[in-house]
Write a structure and sequence with these properties.
heterotrimer; A mainly alpha; B mainly alpha; C alpha/beta; B: mainly alpha; 14 helices; globular; C: alpha/beta; Rossmann fold; 8-stranded mixed beta sheet
Chain lengths: 288, 327, 310
């Protein structure tokens, strides 16, 4: 897990005559259905699996309990799905907030210019000067931890990339011929924003938001795991994994392995969704 | 002379950054609902009377306005006194110094390992673009990027410490032995798994960037011309590819200290490794404001140094900058 | 030495929504170059000149597809043979220092070219010799590409090709935006290489420059050869030329009437069905629009126009 800016996967022609459009649409459909499945199962699965059942303690995975059971006999699959749903909800809220912050700050920076731009650039530099995890811990601490702390820390530390992207995009659009032409034709700034800027910015915003989810979810899980995030009363995946640590030395591997794997698959699905959508909206990244 | 100017410029920038950062961090922590006096007293809560609390608050100047408190803190910080850690009951500087020494061993091992491994994988993948090997490396790297560090640490712990019993399950030294008194072999033994976790995570970044840089180099005009001169694929990589991607890879590795530090926080937590990362978590969890402030500033210096070194290497090595006179 | 027969090159591209489509920048191209001869290939940008060079060397991008044949020394040039011959029998002189490795000293790059050309003897001696031939000093070898001036860059680039024993040298736009003296010097070097018995292909948009050294001129339009004429025909005046486009090019030269040609070359994805020049041709007829004309030998030159008579 990390917040490094990986190079965007440039989709190249692997098999010369395969139809990339269909493949991309399939990948989008598949990731969407998987994520929907998590949410639906997380809501619909029999809550009885969460009840303590001391007869069925510490069972390795079986058909009845595909993810095994924990030290209280609770079904780990049910717990994992619940945990994923919580992580997903927190991730979605935090990244939506973060994306909005990024959009507003990026727009402000590009349109107001002057000292506002300078200050914002400085603030972004300051954020990037700290290791991401240290910033997360600091902000979570400032907000007193818990749900608010997690959401605030994730939302307040992930907007910089999108803000820079939006800023660059708007600055570039402002110099575009057709925007300058509209200005000379006496169109109002609002008219220009609606007709020229928004159509370009909305896809950027949506893809940027989607690509924020994986980071948001991973960081939520990370600070929850170290104990600064969600409390044990909100059993997100981070909590499940941190609890599993106490039982590791006894050899109950499934307590950690399977919930973490599910988290990984969920994060990858979001990644696939974002990347494929980007390829569809912006074929420049997939030319050649 | 040019080098001196470079260093002076960087130091000035660092100073401004630290002042701004300390102001922002100080403002943030003074907003926190967590009471520093309670955090300091901790478990002795019941044995401390309200009068004693007021005394502590008075002595720490907690009743003064924030600006005054900041200026006092700043004045002491300039003299090298960052206050006393309420958890470790030691000067913050001492705590950071000791902890960072432990983390440094961990981080540098992971840093070198991930750099070498990532670069090699990136070259193999980029040199065989589109091949099964490339697909495997890419899939591996993107999957690693989506992998929670702490989960990977748990997995390694399950496999190597619990099941195979090759590595110890925690800490920096065997039970009953102080970390300072452990032998070199014992230290390495305890370092292996945390370092492996950190380097596996770090591999993704450097491998993907190296791969992309190499592909860009192999699609460049100079590669096209070299091909026209009869250069074969590996000749191309050896003669032109490595020459052009080595510098970006080294600088990227220096610029990745931020991720390395973040990763060490999580890895140290899983392996109960007594480094700076673990101290960061404790400071956040138990409201040790002086230590948290100290770590914020220290980690910023750490990251800044990495970036400055990356910059410096470009200036010293790249002939276009070294001989061109350009910035 | 080199014969190109009915060459076509097409690329597959992706547009918004990842929809596929194909463009064909070169269609039905024919060309011949003999040993000791310098042939100028002239055409506007986008006429597919550089692609021809890449096709001969077999260094087109992976998404390109070619049809037709290329013969080198009377034997078909297969991709495998191209791999073996490039750098040894066929050499390229690129447009600019942008084609040199920015982080490798120029002397080293020439030595590498010497090594790859398979020449006997030491690469270093070969590099020193070729540098001396083109008036470069020994210490110039220590420079990086960003340190060489325009004129010195041309000599280095010519050196990379001349250091080996290549029988065919392709110069791809070797004189872009250079000082006239440097242009003349570079063209002189190419002429020397042809006089040594090598075949030289000079690809350029500058017809005036090509005329000063070429034996024959091939005129490209929208990815095909419309005319191949002896350079002397251009000296003789517009009447000696065959194709309406060549005549228009000739009239556009500053020393003649300096008349620009109306209209513009069609982009590769919007080629007309018939003669490619039909939309801009003053002599266009229904027959021109119906089918692409074949190359015909008229008065000792090849032309792709149905109206020209012998």
């Amino acid at each position: 897990m990390s917040d490094m800016s990986l190079p965007a996967p440039v989709h190249r022609l692997a098999t010369p005559f395969s139809n990339r459009r269909r493949q991309t649409l399939w990948a989008i459909g598949l990731s969407l259905s998987f994520l929907a499945l998590i949410v639906v199962l997380g809501q619909r699965l029999d809550p009885a699996g969460l009840d303590t059942n001391l007869q069925a303690r510490n069972q390795a995975p079986t058909w009845q309990h595909p993810f095994g059971t924990d030290w209280l006999g609770r079904d780990m699959l049910t717990r994992t799905l619940r945990g994923l749903t919580i992580s997903l909800a927190v991730g979605v809220i935090a990244s939506a907030l973060s994306a909005c912050i990024g959009l507003l700050i990026g727009l402000a920076s590009a349109t107001l210019g002057g000292w506002v731009d300078t200050v914002i650039t400085w603030v972004i530099d300051m954020f990037l000067s700290l290791p991401h995890l240290v910033a997360l811990i600091l902000i979570a601490f400032v907000f007193g931890g818990g749900l608010t702390g997690v959401i605030a820390s994730v939302a307040l530390t992930h907007w910089t990339g999108l803000a820079r992207l939006i800023r660059a995009e708007v600055l570039q659009l402002k110099t575009a011929n057709y925007v300058q032409l509209s200005e000379r034709l006496g169109r109002s700034r609002i008219w220009i924003a609606r007709h020229h800027l928004l159509p370009h910015l909305i896809p950027q915003f949506v893809v940027g938001l989607l690509l924020l989810f994986p980071h948001a979810i991973l960081h939520e899980a990370g600070i929850t795991f170290i104990g600064i995030g969600l409390s044990p009363h909100q059993p997100a995946v981070g909590i499940i994994l941190s609890e599993s640590m106490r039982h590791l030395s006894t050899g109950y591997w499934w307590l950690a392995a399977l919930p973490g794997l599910s988290l990984l698959v969920m994060v990858k699905s979001f990644d696939a969704l974002g990347e494929n959508l980007r390829a569809l909206l912006d074929p420049k990244t997939s030319q050649e | 002379m040019k080098l001196l100017l470079f260093v002076v410029k960087k130091l000035a920038r660092l100073a401004v950054l630290l002042i701004a950062l300390s102001m922002a961090a100080f403002a943030l922590v003074s907003l926190s609902p967590i009471d520093p006096v309670n955090a300091y007293i901790g478990a002795d809560m019941l044995r401390v009377s309200p009068e004693q609390r007021a005394q502590i608050a008075e002595r720490w100047g907690l009743n003064d306005p924030p600006v005054q408190r900041y200026l006092r803190w700043m004045g002491q910080a300039l003299q090298g006194d960052l206050g006393t850690s309420s958890i470790y009951r030691q000067p913050v500087i001492t705590v950071i110094g000791q902890r960072f020494t432990a983390s440094l061993a961990l981080m540098s091992a992971a840093w070198v390992l991930s750099g070498v491994l990532g670069f090699t994988l990136g070259v193999l993948a980029g040199g065989n673009e589109g091949s099964p090997l490339d697909r495997v490396v890419r899939w591996f790297a993107y999957t690693l990027a989506a992998t929670p560090t702490f989960w990977l640490a748990l997995l390694l712990l399950i496999v190597f410490s619990v099941t195979l019993r090759w590595t110890p399950i925690c800490c920096a030294a065997p039970p009953g032995v102080l970390p300072e008194e452990a032998t070199l072999l014992q230290r390495i033994h305890h370092l292996m798994l945390p370092a492996a976790t950190l380097s596996i995570i770090g591999v993704a970044n450097i491998a993907l960037h190296t791969r992309q840089k190499l592909i860009a180099a192999l699609h460049s005009d100079y590669a096209l011309f070299a091909t026209a001169q009869g250069e074969k694929r590996w000749g191309l990589i050896w003669q032109h590819g490595l020459r052009n991607i080595a510098l970006p890879a080294i600088t990227l590795q220096f610029a990745s200290l931020s991720e390395l530090f973040g990763g060490s926080v999580l890895a140290e937590q899983v392996f109960t490794y007594p480094g700076l990362g673990q101290a960061t978590v404790q400071a956040g969890l138990r409201g040790d404001v002086p230590l948290l402030m100290g770590i914020v500033l220290f980690s910023a210096i750490f990251v800044f140094t990495g970036n400055a070194l990356a910059d410096l290497i470009y200036h010293v090595i790249d002939p276009r900058i070294r001989l061109g006179g350009g910035a | 030495m080199l014969a190109v027969r009915n060459l076509s090159i097409s690329f597959r591209m992706y547009s918004a929504g990842l929809r596929q489509h194909e463009i064909t920048p070169i269609t039905g191209l024919d060309l011949e170059v003999r040993a000791g001869e310098l042939v100028g290939i002239v055409g506007a940008s986008g006429s597919g000149k550089s692609l021809l060079a890449h096709a001969i060397l077999g260094i087109l991008p992976a998404n390109a597809r070619t049809a037709g044949e290329i013969y080198f020394k009377e034997t078909l040039l297969t991709p495998d043979r191209q791999k073996r011959l490039r750098g040894k029998e066929i050499a390229l002189i690129p447009q600019s220092v942008g084609f040199l490795d920015p982080l490798m000293r120029v002397g080293q790059q020439v030595r590498r070219a010497a090594y790859l050309s398979g020449a006997n003897g030491s690469a270093e001696a070969a590099q020193r010799q070729v540098f001396r031939r083109y008036g470069l000093r020994d210490e110039d070898a220590e420079r990086y590409p960003f340190q060489v001036s325009g004129g010195m860059a041309r000599r280095v680039l010519v050196s990379t090709a001349a250091v080996g024993q290549a029988a065919l040298i392709i110069a791809d736009e070797p004189t872009p935006g250079l000082h006239p003296a440097v242009v003349a010097e570079t063209l002189g070097h190419l002429r020397q290489l042809a006089d040594e018995g090598r075949a030289v292909l000079l690809i350029t948009h500058d017809i005036g420059a090509a005329l000063t050294v070429a034996d024959r001129i091939a005129v490209f339009y929208a990815g095909t050869t419309v005319e191949v004429a002896p350079a002397a025909d251009f000296q003789a005046g517009g009447q000696a030329l065959r194709h309406p486009y060549t005549q228009a090019l000739w009239r556009a030269l500053p020393q003649n009437q300096f008349v620009p040609i109306a209209g513009s070359q069609p982009p590769p994805d919007q080629l007309p069905a018939g003669c490619l020049f039909a939309p801009r041709c003053p002599h266009v007829s229904a027959a021109c629009r119906a089918a692409r004309p074949e190359l015909r030998l008229i008065r000792g030159g090849w032309v792709r126009c149905i109206h020209v008579e012998g």
